[in-house]
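#structure-requests
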Amino acid sequence: MEKQNKVIKAGILGASGYTGAEAMRLLLRHPNVELTLLTADRKAGQSVEEVYPHLGGYGLPDMVSVEDADWSSVDVVFCGLPHGTTQEIIATLPKEVKVVDLSADFRLRNPETYAEWYGHAHQALDLQKEAVYGLTEFYREDVKEARLVACPGCYPTATLIALLPLVRAGLVDPKDLVIDAKSGITGAGRGLKQNTLFSEAGEGLSPYSVSKHRHAPEIEQEVAAFAGLKADDVRVNFVPHLIPMSRGELVTCHVKLTDGKTVQDIRDEYSALFKDEPFVRLLDGSAIPQTQMVRGSNHCVVNVFEDRIPGRATVIAAIDNLVKGSSGQAIQNMNLMFGFGETLGLEQVALFP
């Protein structure tokens, strides 16, 4: 009971971004967390209410620059900074401060792969070696012992929850995966970009980063590991799309069944694996996952369907990209790192309509 009653102090680096705001919203209702540090270099000196009016009135500290951060005031930091920046900052933190990283800096285990996709060499290889990939449902025991957790990207979160059980059980061919992914506009961040202006993103559907999205190697890394293959042996067809809604994410995965396997085998595998998971739910019968089912929650809904092509199946998963795909999953991991109940601060029911 001692751990359950303990109150830890948390900081959010990059608090002015959407993931920072979502982390604040969720942590404000966490019984074991006090927010004591918020950094946002371009918003340094401003109150939270000035940056996010909906979070005003809760007594949160003003935002400060990273240079002015008092690391002695925190037990854990959530890093929502751009890639590259996080490596430099985490390397300077006191060793007793735990880190939940929401950037891409520690997701890829191979530094050469990181350099290829992010355009520069990794600056903290020693830290990379100790980082645990934070897909909670599959790395739960490792997360419990970790000092540094690298939370997955939003697309990999939904995709891997759907696919890893199947490749691990040998139900589908890990070398024949087609992933059609769609995300709300918050997935593009809060910065001003022409393609995310309301008049340009509204009333339209836009594919982007076709065949070159940075989440592809992350998906390949994990699929290969769970299939018992080398990372270079797996290549996925992955195309993301921008949907004119603020939040939500849906992935449709087209898979090839291995010889003798059926859609019912997939349902049985999901049922056995997810029956005790607090945030992952296999839908009944022919119910189709929708983003409306999970909006504002830390839940993931999954289902599988027969394809018209014999020997193939369609797996669909939906999450909220800002919660289960980002800040909610980060808090889920933090709970494990500090010995708290895994669902603390994440009990929100999905918001509908």
